[in-house]
Structures are given as C-alpha cells and as structure tokens.
Amino acid sequence: MPEVYDLNPVTHITAGAEGEPGNRTFYVQARQGRQLVTLLCEKQQVAALALGIEQLLEQIAQKDPDLAGRSDEVLDIDMALEAPLEPVFRVGQMGLGYEEEHNLLVLVAQELLPEGEDPSNASSARFWATPVQMRTMARHAAQVVAAGRPTCPLCGAPMDPEGHFCPRRNGHQRPLAV
Fold first, then answer.
1. How far is CA 175 from the centre of its chain?
2. What is the C-alpha to C-alpha distance for residues 69 and 148, in angstroms, rounded to an integer?
3. Residues with Cβ < 8 Å from 98, sequence gap 6 or more?
4. What is the pLDDT of residues 110-157, one digit of tens each?
C-alpha cells in the first residue's frame, strides 16, 4: 500500500548530502512538528530542484513581487540534515507548484519503483512551504551540490583528484599539478 506524506505546512525543509565528494548520498528532508520525512535523491535531482525553485519564485515575483518576497531574503537557520537519516523512499520524480491563496509552494515527490511495477503503488510526499523557506532551501541545495567534485569544463562529468578520462579530449588525461 503506498504511503502519502503531506506536510502542510512544513516547519523546516532542507536538502543535503552525507559522505565524501564522489561518494555522497543526497537527501531532501522536511519536518512538520514531530513528523520528520526524509527522501533519498540523486545529485542531479537536488540541483534541478534548486534551479526549479528559483525559477518558480521568479515567475511568482513577476506577477506580484510581494508574494515571492525579496530575492535576497533567506532564513538564518541551520540547514543541516537531522538524524536519523532514514529515507521513506527513493525519489523517482519531483515537481513544484504554487498555491496562491495561502502563498505556499509545494514540492511533490513520487517514489521510484522497479521497472514494470504499477505506478499507482508509488508512495508520494508533498511538502508545503513559504517562498522564503523554499528560497533558503534552494540556495542551500545549490551550495551542497557545488561542494562536490569539480566538473570537467569540456564534458561536464565530475573529475576525480587522480585525474579524469574526458571523451572530449580523446581520452587524454590532464597532467596533475604537483
């Protein structure tokens, strides 16, 4: 039976990673009172989420700047993930929406199911947050993603400290600076 986690509104929302660059695990986490919901994500999903939130807030600001708040307005709060990191599911799809009446953004996440399984069996989560909460999370998420391995300027793949096999350089490695 699929679970539905509906935190409306959240008291805290964040994204983060655990582990060393190149071997990190990414999460989105929200809290409403005592209920803590953690979702397992891919790095690209967290990066896309940060960008999507910024774009949605920009669209809202074009309609009514008062609803989106100032673009530099973020909360001065601890954005660290809370223990225990026990994800309720791995995210397959995420989407964003806006509910104008209460001026809340909603992050909708759906569970990644094995191929061939009925999509109606997927658990889902909806995290409702204010524009400032979402902007704070987006800025933090972008920093978390950027803190990983540098990306190759030619192919965009992550580069390891030991070197990088770049298909755009016909497989030649750059010499390491000593």
1. 34
2. 30
3. 56, 60, 104, 105, 106
4. 999 999 999 899 999 999 999 999 999 999 999 999 887 777 887 777
- Judge contact between 45 and 54, C-beta under 8 A: no
pTM, rounded to two decimals: 0.84
Find all residues with CB under 8 Å of 107, minimum gap 6, and list them. 13, 28, 30, 49, 94, 95, 96, 125, 126, 127, 129, 134
Pairwise CA distance, residues 47 & 51, whole Å: 6
Phi, psi of 96 (to 5 degrees): -125, 150
Closest to 130 in 3D by CA, of 155, 99, 153: 99
Extended strands (E) in 42-169: 89-99, 104-111, 124-129
SS3 4: strand
